[in-house]
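Bumping with the actual sequence this time:
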Amino acid sequence: MSNATTKKPAYRIYSVFKPEGKKAIWQEIGAAWPHDDGQGFNLSFGARPLAGADIVLRAPKAETQEGAAV
């Protein structure tokens, strides 16, 4: 699992929960790194998704020099 410690993650993992009649709540819960052979991913979770939530993988947004996402 050396990719997880030496490279930036290829994806962020989100738990997306949509309460009835309300806006969806996106909570970042982890990150994913591709395997060197391209046949899968290592996943690292810092939290569990809410019951009934969707799990979504999204590419991280590019960062500017100041570190803010663009």
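The tokens above came from a reply further down the thread. The beta strands are 11-17, 25-34, 41-45, 54-58.
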